[in-house]
Amino acid sequence: MTDRLLTFYGDDFTGSTDALEAVASHGIPSVLFLNPPDEDLLAQFSECRAIGIAGESRSRGPGWMDAQLPPVFEALKRIGAPICQYKVCSTFDSAPETGSIGRAMEIGQRVFRNPWVPIAVAAPHLKRYVVFGNLFALAAGTVYRIDQHPTMSRHPVTPMDEADLRRHLALQTHGRIELVDIVALESGNAEALLEKVLAASPAAVLFDGLLQDTIQETGRLIWSKRSEEPMFCVGSSGLTHALMLHWREIGLIPRTHTPPVVNKIDRLIVISGSCAAATELQLRWAMRNGYTGIRVDAGTHPFSGVVSEALNALKEGRNIAIYSALGPGDCIGIPHGETLGRYLGSLLLELVRQSGVRRAVIAGGDTSSHAVRQLGIQALTFAGLLSPGAPLCRAHSGESAIDGLELVLKGGQVGPENFFEMVQKGTS
């Protein structure tokens, strides 16, 4: 068996595939399971050095986390790797009652018995930055403080009304959180500052991040603090990239790697439960460019009627986009979360079974988490790069219609306006 480097749990499915992309695109054999694997399933991927489990804690409450996360974390601890990452979105949207990152951090710290937890959120490759503890994110060409962000400040479930991540987490955990700031990271004094703050025994340490050099320094610092016991960390794919950059520098992973070519396909199914402005632009682009758009309401639209309309379009050789909303202003009063995700996932399963289409997109973090569970997938592996944070993945399943299905799980904010065209045409 190849020595493992990383295990991770994604708090939603789009974030999980984002982490899968971060490791696999650096040439590290990787697999993402939908549930903790048994020994037989794990043995099928024995060459993998990075092993993840896709989760849904981002849309769940503290009680669910208390019941569900400990056995998953225990499974990751048994699988074994120097670092275990609790993968969160780089927009860090969460709340005490929904998707509490603070509660997940407490559970992970208890299971892994770590004296402190590193937190790294900045993801420059996704235009997400942390400066003096405050989170900033790009939208429509402008970088906003997260509490002023046009979408995340109005998220329908977990609106971000606080940019200082320490203050934000203070509502979710009683643990004290210290900061290694951008000045220390850029001046070469980060190691001394980290030693100083650790001497005061904080529960966690947040690391700023602006450009690649600062996140690489964060990766170096975290790796230097590992011990014989796995280190539990909290972070976006920026943390994953930080570790990759450092591992590449010290020769643990290949210095260069060419990702697989993504071939063009004839028809694409898009399923969207996203309320994000970026997804709205992508859906509108698709419908201007020949996609059959089908708006659905999980509470009122007959399932069979939607399937029939979609199959007719696919039989005529058209791409389809099934969606619940067009943008932030169109989400009021419609079902979200598990109800919508299950409905959309069941639609996709039926369409794949009947149409023979072999590539699909699911847009929306919460939607993806619940929708993918309807498909009977055991694991996902990396199949190619498309746009940062939204890789092409290959499904592994006992059902022939689903086994080998190519999936893109796209966060609401991810991808350019013509993203769906990129998915269909590939990189060949």
Describe this protein's structure.
With about 425 residues, this protein is of the alpha/beta class. The chain folds into two domains: about 5-250, 3-Layer(aba) Sandwich (Rossmann fold); about 270-425, Four-carbon acid sugar kinase, nucleotide binding domain (Molybdenum Cofactor Biosythetic Enzyme, Chain A, 3-Layer(aba) Sandwich). It has helices at about 15-25, 40-45, 60-80, 100-110, 165-170, 180-185, 190-200, 210-225, 235-250, 275-290, 305-315, 335-355, 365-370, 420-425; strands at about 5-10, 30-35, 50-55, 85, 115-120, 130, 135-140, 140-145, 175-180, 205, 230-235, 270, 290-295, 320-325, 360-365, 375-385, 390-395, 405-410. Strands 9-10-5-11-4-1-3-2-16-17-18-15-12-14-13 form a 15-stranded mixed beta sheet, with helices on both faces. Strands 6-7-8 form a three-stranded antiparallel beta sheet, with no helix packed on it. A hairpin with a 2-residue loop joins strand 7 (about 135-140) and strand 8. The chain is globular, with a radius of gyration of 21 Å. The two termini are about 35 Å apart. The mean pLDDT is about 95.
Strand content: 15-25%
- Might you state the CATH topology name of the largest domain? Rossmann fold
Task: Find the CATH superfamily of the largest domain.
Answer: Putative sugar-binding, N-terminal domain
Number of domains: 2
Helical amount among residues, as a percent range? 25-40%
Average pLDDT, to the nearest integer? 93
Q: Any low-confidence stretches, pLDDT <50, length ≥5?
A: none
Distance between the termini: 33 Å
**Count of individual beta strands:** 18
Q: In which order are the strands of the major sheet placed?
A: 9-10-5-11-4-1-3-2-16-17-18-15-12-14-13
Provide the structure class: alpha/beta
CATH architecture of the largest domain: 3-Layer(aba) Sandwich
For the record, the CATH class of the largest domain is Alpha Beta
Biggest sheet overview? 15 strands, mixed
Query: How many separate helices?
Result: 14
